[in-house]
Design brief:
Elements (H helix, E strand, L loop, with lengths): L1 E3 L2 E3 L4 E2 L18 E4 H18 L3 E5 L17 E6 L6 H12 L5 E6 L3 H9 L4 E3 L6 H4 L27
Parallel strand pairs: 3-4, 4-5, 5-6, 6-7, 7-8
Antiparallel strand pairs: 1-2, 1-8
Length: about 170
């Protein structure tokens, strides 16, 4: 299950991950909606676009913590989903990636966080622009839904609500 727009939904996307030492050009691409890593996108861009437009296969990309979102800025309209991988709980680079995708690059499609994430992070991940979440192994998506309601108001602006709750009036 995936949490998307604060609801549980089935997840049909297949995350493509190259084996250790495997070249991006040689990665097997299964049938169905795919989330490919940046390296595979760069190596097989033309065939992936053809697959999407000629065969109706949905296409998404996933970014690792060290990937620069500017590398896909010109291709952003080709993706149904952009996912950001969090390989370990303490790695917060994905928060910046999300904010850049939403605010600098204008991405308005599904922005998914996946990897070692849990309930404690959902509220804050949502604030920087994520709207879909695949929790880490062994974590309950059903129980995690409550995280969105733990803080009823935010006083600072964010990617979801850019203006602060209280604004200073012009004199």
């Amino acid at each position: 299950k995936i949490i998307k727009e604060r609801r549980l939904q089935d997840d049909h996307w297949k995350v493509v991950t190259p084996a250790a030492g495997q070249q991006a050009i040689d990665v097997f691409l299964p049938f169905g909606p795919l989330l490919v890593p940046l390296a595979v996108w760069k190596a097989r861009k033309d065939s992936l676009i053809a697959r999407e437009y000629e065969h109706g296969s949905l296409l998404g990309i996933w970014l690792a913590p060290g990937d620069d979102p500017a590398e896909i800025a010109n291709d952003i309209d080709d993706f149904t989903v952009i996912a950001v991988h969090f390989p370990k709980f303490a790695d917060g680079r994905g928060y910046s990636t999300a904010r850049l995708l939403r605010e600098r690059h204008g991405y308005d499609g599904e922005l998914r966080a996946f990897g070692d994430i849990g309930r404690d992070q959902l509220f804050f991940l949502n604030r920087v622009g994520f709207d879909a979440f695949v929790l880490g192994e062994g974590k309950s998506a059903e129980e995690a839904l409550a995280a969105f309601d733990e803080f009823p108001e935010s006083y600072q602006g964010d990617a979801v609500q850019p203006l602060p709750l209280f604004r200073r009036r012009a004199a």
